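Please fill in the sequence for the structure shown.

STRUCTURE ENCODING:
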């Protein structure tokens, strides 16, 4: 992992996988960082994977809030350009899904396809204590999840600037009209036990994008990439293979 120096801040990023493999960009949600993908990334050896920590998260710089959604989109756009990635599939989780949608609308020349999980066109910021946050992220059996310690560590490591900045960025964001214009291969991958963004809302998101595919992961949580990594990777790999992104 490294800190990438951009013109105005440093962002934590990691690029792994074969040099000439098709790129996959992973964007986490509020309170998480690039460790969110620790269990998933090794299961996708055929791809060049870029994962990052948003500003205010992980080891990335934490400028004073508020942040704007456009700024977060621009941060990811600059990282993709920094690593010279072309025709990437962008996977956004939770609030990261809003960033993925905005990036696809802005830069279809960079984004070949989109995968959204635990997301919608609008998300309402909701401050939680750590236990409530873990319950919403990890589902009804959250205390028994092996990923609990890792999720708590990410939540506790997120600085106040990150929480406040991202909350401000999504507070007024409503991407319904712009996302409805998208015409690119899209997979909406929903956890059946997602307590943060119910599957019905995620199905509505899939219905909004022409030709999008909706898939429900049985017993999947909001963070199914951590709690059910094999099932998540299987669904993702099938989609990537289906669109020829291998």
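FILLED IN BY: designer on duty
SEQUENCE:
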């Amino acid at each position: 992992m490294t800190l990438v120096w951009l013109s105005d801040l440093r962002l934590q990023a990691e690029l792994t996988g074969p040099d000439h493999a098709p790129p996959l960009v992973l964007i986490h949600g509020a309170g998480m960082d690039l460790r969110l993908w620790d269990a998933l990334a090794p299961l996708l050896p055929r791809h060049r994977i870029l994962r990052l920590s948003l500003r205010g998260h992980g080891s990335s710089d934490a400028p004073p809030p508020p942040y704007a959604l456009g700024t977060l989109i621009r941060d990811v756009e600059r990282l993709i350009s920094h690593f010279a990635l072309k025709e990437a599939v962008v996977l956004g989780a939770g609030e990261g899904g809003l960033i993925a949608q905005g990036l696809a609308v802005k830069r279809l020349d960079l984004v070949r396809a989109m995968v959204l999980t635990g997301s919608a066109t609008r998300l309402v910021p909701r401050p939680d204590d750590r236990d409530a946050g873990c319950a919403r992220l990890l589902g009804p059996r959250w205390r028994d999840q092996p990923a609990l310690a890792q999720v708590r560590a990410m939540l506790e490591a997120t600085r106040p600037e990150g929480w406040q900045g991202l909350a401000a960025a999504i507070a007024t964001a409503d991407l319904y009209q712009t996302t409805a214009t998208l015409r690119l291969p899209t997979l909406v991958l929903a956890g059946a036990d997602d307590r943060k963004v119910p599957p019905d809302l995620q199905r509505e998101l899939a219905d909004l994008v022409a030709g999008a595919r909706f898939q429900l992961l049985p017993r999947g949580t909001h963070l199914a990439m951590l709690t059910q990594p094999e099932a998540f990777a299987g669904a993702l790999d099938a989609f990537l293979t289906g669109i020829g992104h291998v």
